[in-house]
Amino acid sequence: MTNEQRKQPVTVLGLGLMGVALADALGRAGHPTTTWTRSNRAGPAGTTTAASAADAVAASPLVVVCVLDYRAAEDVLVGDLTGKTVVNLTTGTPEQGRETAERITARGAAYLDGGLMVNPEGIGDPTSLILVSGSADAFQEHRSTLDVLGDIRFLGADAGSAALYDTALLGIMYSAMTGYLQATALVGREGVSAARFTPLARDMLVGTASFLDSIAEQVDSGEYASRSARLDMQLSAAGHLIHAAQVRKVDTTLLEHVRSLMERAVADGHAGSDYAAVIEQLRQG
Ligand SMILES: NC(=O)c1ccc[n+]([C@@H]2O[C@H](COP(=O)([O-])OP(=O)(O)OC[C@H]3O[C@@H](n4cnc5c(N)ncnc54)[C@H](OP(=O)(O)O)[C@@H]3O)[C@@H](O)[C@H]2O)c1
């Protein structure tokens, strides 16, 4: 094997569901992969299990960490980090990403923070979204290795950016899934199965996604004048949604909150605006 063909050694710290998937993908791609986890379990076939966290860190120039939280991540990053690149794929907040970056770089390593927008089964799929931010030099150096894990998006030098986008995108996911479940509960009261309803729900979500570019333009310009659907008209529709849910004994908390945001926007002078104007009610202070 020539030097060009030799794949970069990687260490994976943490062998939970995600750590195993990461180590497995790297090992399968031909990277000599060393693993270690707190409970000393062995890594997936084809990887080498280190005797200690310090041995695991020493084994590779690139150290990937994926454990429960940031405190655990720093606990397992023991030993000499000088000259290494640490990629922390543990879920956390932007603040934790920035603070960890400071402490890890003070120990002589380059730092990348990451957000995995995928479940363990999706690791290694080139369409699986993985957000990364922090040292641009380290990203360039290790990009081809990280590409093995999924569709890597570098978000810039601020180590907090990956977690910022991660939390924002998870907020969309949970809100959309709750909206879908609320709607499924509603139609379910009239005997419509989730399977029957779901193709329509999916089309609605795709249609809603098609509005986003135009909403973004209005948000960025602060100009919300209605082009198609006035907020006072939509407020009236929200009342129908709540009535239908109440009659069928389906929880209305989500819908009441949406209606309240719309009411406040209308009271603030946005009766003739598009839905984008609601963003002003979501910004606090
Ligand atoms: N699973 C998903 O679908 C998913 C998706 C996106 C992001 N993530 C993120 O990926 C990270 C790992 O998730 P996971 O699903 O792999 O979780 P998991 O299966 O529960 O594994 C947790 C890992 O953290 C380690 N750990 C827990 N507490 C520790 C401590 N105090 N000190 C040292 N190590 C500790 C565990 O060590 P032991 O091996 O010794 O138990 C294990 O390796 C989390 O931040 C999660 O939010 C997960």
Textual characterization of the structure:
With 285 residues, the chain is α/β, with parallel strands linked by helices. The protein has two domains: 10-157, 3-Layer(aba) Sandwich (Rossmann fold), CATH 3.40.50.720; 165-282, N-(1-d-carboxylethyl)-l-norvaline Dehydrogenase, domain 2 (Orthogonal Bundle), CATH 1.10.1040. It contains eleven helices and eight strands. The chain has an eight-stranded mixed sheet, sandwiched between helices. The radius of gyration is 24 Å and the shape is elongated. It binds NADP nicotinamide-adenine-dinucleotide phosphate (NAP). NADP nicotinamide-adenine-dinucleotide phosphate is lined by residues 14-19, 37-39, 41, 66-68, 72, 75-76, 90-91, 116, 119-120.
Strands, helices and their partners?
Layout: E1 10-13, H1 17-28, E2 33-36, E3 48-49, H2 53-59, E4 62-65, H3 70-76, E5 85-88, H4 94-106, E6 110-116, E7 129-134, H5 136-146, E8 151-154, H6 161-188, H7 194-209, H8 212-221, H9 231-247, H10 253-270, H11 279-282
Parallel strand pairs: 1-2, 1-4, 2-3, 4-5, 5-6, 7-8
Antiparallel strand pairs: 6-7
Helix pairs in contact: 6-7, 9-10
This protein binds NADP nicotinamide-adenine-dinucleotide phosphate.
NADP nicotinamide-adenine-dinucleotide phosphate binds next to α1 and α3.
